[in-house]
């Protein structure tokens, strides 16, 4: 299995595409540039089986319907943000995108709790990591030693908590109780910017000291 990071959309949010040897794929957080992203998937001869969302802010969902409609694949989202997809005020697009507010059709599958999601040959452990937003989750692939953290944890930074539903203390708790409990060699595939590792963030992230 391999995975690819693709910055998409107005904020160059990192989308991730995981693929197996059969060219089946999982798409995480397709943030925008829908047609160009579909062209890339097609050029790679990939067949997306599902779209997983770490959360429902506008910069993570802009190409959701493009991918879902093109490949007829279901969308997964945590229950705490189900109504955000269709609400530009909640997903933030009305504030940050002006006349280009984003609305997306409802999710097909609801993440109710921490659990394991298996889709074809792909198996993810879901961790609830709220704080940046109420329904933020992280997807962990133990065999690949990678966690897709959305906007919870970044290289030398953490997610902002000044948006609706944000909670700084809750975010720190999520990071320490969930993400930092993972093996130190685990790659953190962040929602923005470069990848890092759990060990690097334990040792050097200035936002995590003194918790």
Short synopsis of the structure:
It contains 7 helices and 14 strands. With 211 residues, the chain is an alpha/beta fold.
What's the layout of helices and strands?
Layout: E1 2-8, E2 13-19, E3 24-28, H1 34-43, E4 47-52, H2 58-61, H3 64-71, E5 75-78, H4 88-91, H5 93-96, E6 109-111, E7 116-119, E8 122-128, E9 137-141, E10 146-150, E11 153-154, E12 157-158, H6 168-177, E13 187-190, E14 196-197, H7 198-204
Parallel strand pairs: 3-4, 4-5, 5-6, 10-13
Antiparallel strand pairs: 1-2, 2-3, 7-8, 8-9, 9-10, 11-12, 13-14
Tally of DSSP helical segments: 7
Strand content: 25-35%
Identify the CATH architecture: 4-Layer Sandwich
CATH superfamily: Ribonuclease Z/Hydroxyacylglutathione hydrolase-like
Share of residues in helices: 10-25%
CATH class: Alpha Beta
Question: What is the end-to-end distance?
Answer: 36 Å
Shape: globular
Strand order of the largest sheet: 1-2-3-4-5-6
The largest sheet is: 6 strands, mixed
Secondary-structure element order, N to C: EEEHEHHEHHEEEEEEEHEEH
Q: Which residues sit in consecutive blocks of at least 5 with pLDDT less than 50?
A: none
What is the total number of structural domains? 1
Task: Tell me the structural class.
Answer: alpha/beta
Residue-averaged pLDDT, rounded? 96
CATH fold description: Metallo-beta-lactamase, Chain A
**Whole-number radius of gyration?**
16 Å
Based on DSSP secondary structure assignment, what is the total number of beta strands? 14
